Each structure stands twice: as structure tokens, then as C-alpha cells.
Amino acid sequence: GAGVSQSPRYKVAKRGQDVALRCDPISGHVSLFWYQQALGQGPEFLTYFQNEAQLDKSGLPSDRFFAERPEGSVSTLKIQRTQQEDSAVYLCASSQGKNYGYTFGSGTRLTVV
Amino acid sequence: DAKTTQPNSMESNEEEPVHLPCNHSTISGTDYIHWYRQLPSQGPEYVIHGLTSNVNNRMASLAIAEDRKSSTLILHRATLRDAAVYYCIPLRNDMRFGAGTRLTVKP
Asked: What is the pLDDT along chain A (113 residues), one digit of tens a residue?
């Protein structure tokens, strides 16, 4: 596609529910990042993939957060047993590599009630 | 990770040039310097990036100091649509955002 696509655009989850957020990067992009952005804050790094390899997951806030990119293209961020503090916009970005600019998706706004 | 220092906020008048500074004194020799901006209620948008030489594109220019410890993003003629938070990021394997500079453009 022409850009990075994220789905769903909005998600409301009851506390304790599991959610899965999808990112479709630009075709051929090897690098993929996930970010969490709380209201009024800058994006916070969660994890980074190069192809299917998860090279850095140091930003994942707890073991309830899990990300995968099994075939090196589509990526899924899963949050188990959601809590209210997980409410945020989750952003995905992809690139051909660090020598190139990153394209961001529009994000998924997660609200935990 | 290379640390960055940017002014919290800046103001500009419409149609005037804007120079947004960034200090990244701990940058390593292979870190590219990326700039992104985020308009209200939107995801971040790529602006420009460079390694050592100054760079120009249709959106902006990037001036990189000879020692690479600082850089300046230049918007040649600010418009109201340029009002955003601007982030300077020395890019290694991870891309971490700082607080950025909130640019206000006055008509």
C-alpha cells in the first residue's frame, strides 16, 4: 500500500480484556517500530523489528505486552489483561532502514474502561 | 542512546524563516540525525535526515555542525500548517523521541 496501515483505528476494551493491534507496514520495509503515546506526551518507544527479528523490546512496559512479526511484514502488538493505564495511542512506523526516513501510521487509539 | 536537547517551545511569524536547534553532543559517528514533526491529533511525520552534510528537501533544510554535536532544522517560510511539535532524533537501532520543540506560528 501507499502508507503504513494500522487497525483498528479505535478500540474500546474492558479492563482485563486482551487486545491485538495490527500494523501493515509499507511493502518491502525491513524496519518496524511500535510506540505508545499517552495524551499530551511524546511517543514512547516500545519495540523494534528488523524483518522478523525483534532486536529490541526494552520499551515494553510489562510482560502483558507482546509483539510479533512472524513473516517480516505485518506486525501485531498484543496486550493481555488490559488496564486503564494502557489507554493511549499506539503508533507503528516502518522504513527501509535507518538510512531512510520512517513512515508512521495513523495509530490505534485504545481506551480501557 | 544519544541524548538530545531542544527548546521546549518557539514562536514564529507566518512567512518568516524558523531555525529549530538541537544539541546531540553524545551522538556516535554512525548515527543519522532524523527530524520528525507531529501535528495535533496526527501521527509523527518524517521531515528530513542527514549524516554529515547539510541536506535540503521540499519541506526543510538540515544544517549539521561540523563536529555533529548539534543540528538545526530550517523552515524557510513558516506557514500556519507548520505549527507542530518538532523532534530531533539521533538514530541508532532504536528511535526514541525526546520532548521536542512546540512551534507556534502567528499569522
From this structure: 579 999 999 999 999 999 999 999 999 999 999 999 999 899 999 999 999 999 999 999 999 999 999 999 999 999 999 999 999 999 999 999 878 899 999 999 999 99
Q: Are B4 and B89 in contact (CB under 8 A)?
A: yes
Nearest of A3, A25, A45 to residue A94 by alpha carbon: A25
Q: Name the helix (H) or strand (E) containing B18.
A: strand B18-23
Burial (0-12, 13-18, 19+ Cβ within 10 Å), A44: middle
Contact A93 B95 (CB under 8 A): yes
Chain A CA closest to residue B96: A45
Using a 10 angstrom Cβ sphere, with 0-12 exposed, 13-18 middle and 19 or more buried, the burial of residue B9 is exposed
For B94, the closest of A42, A56, A106 (CB atoms) is A56
Question: Distance (Å) from the C-alpha of residue A27 to the closest C-alpha of chain B?
Answer: 18
